[in-house]
Amino acid sequence: MSRLTVAMQNDLKLLAMLRDELALQAHLLKADMKDRWQGLEVKWGELRGQAERAETAGSDALHESEVAMRLLADSLRKGYDDVRKTLKH
Q: The whole model's pTM is what?
């Protein structure tokens, strides 16, 4: 397993834990944050799909999947951080 693959798996685990934590607090979200949350859920599904495809992809496609996954993971991380900050206020 490549270092990048291991790093992505670790990122997925950390994002899953953050997602689960925030999902428990979702009922506290303000109306405008509910739309943001729904958008993040769509991206979460896309990331999970990319991860599944990456596991079965050849080396060229694997690199493309890893780049796409990194971009989605970064976007999710920022979105989850924004939601967390909003919940703390």
A: 0.67
